[in-house]
Design goal:
The chain is an alpha/beta fold. It is built from 7 helices and 5 strands; from the N terminus they run βααβααβααβαβ.
Length: 130
C-alpha cells in the first residue's frame, strides 16, 4: 500500500511527463489519497473551469484510489505532526500535514515530488524523484 501526494496525482491527471517517473512506484500496489488531496483536486476542477469530459476522466482515474477521510485517529496524527513542526521550527502546511498523517497512520510510504514539504516529518517514509 502507498499514499500518493496531490502533486504526483496531478501529474497523471494533467498527463505531465513527470508522471512517468512515478509510475513504477505505483504499479501493483493499492493506492490511497487523503481527503485533502481529493478536496484540492475538486477545487482545481472549479477554479480552472474543467469541462464535463475532463472531470469525468479525472474521476475515473481517482476511482483507482482509496480515499482516507479524517477520523479521530487521523486527527491525532495530524495534531502531532503540526505540533512537532511548530516545536522544532519546521513549519508544514495544513494540507501537507493531512497527507503525511495518512502515511504515518498506516505506516506506508508517501509518494511526492515535493520532498522538502515533508522531509522534517518524523518517521515518514518518502519516495520522491525530485
Amino acid at each position: 500500500m502507498i499514499i500518493v501526494d496531490t502533486d504526483v496525482t496531478s501529474f497523471f491527471l494533467k498527463e505531465d511527463s513527470r508522471a512517468e517517473l512515478y509510475r513504477p512506484h505505483l504499479l501493483g500496489l493499492p493506492k490511497l489519497i487523503s481527503f485533502m488531496t481529493l478536496a484540492e483536486l475538486r477545487r482545481w476542477e472549479i477554479q480552472h473551469n474543467w469541462g464535463a469530459r475532463r472531470i469525468a476522466k479525472a474521476r475515473e482515474f481517482l476511482d483507482k484510489f482509496g480515499i482516507i477521510y479524517a477520523d479521530e485517529k487521523l486527527c491525532e496524527f495530524w495534531a502531532q505532526i503540526k505540533s512537532d513542526a511548530h516545536k522544532y521550527g519546521n513549519p508544514i502546511e495544513t494540507a501537507d500535514a493531512w497527507v503525511a498523517s495518512v502515511a504515518l497512520m498506516f505506516d506506508i510510504p508517501l509518494v511526492t515530488h515535493n520532498r522538502r514539504h515533508f522531509e522534517n516529518v518524523k518517521n515518514l517514509k518518502l519516495i520522491s524523484e525530485a
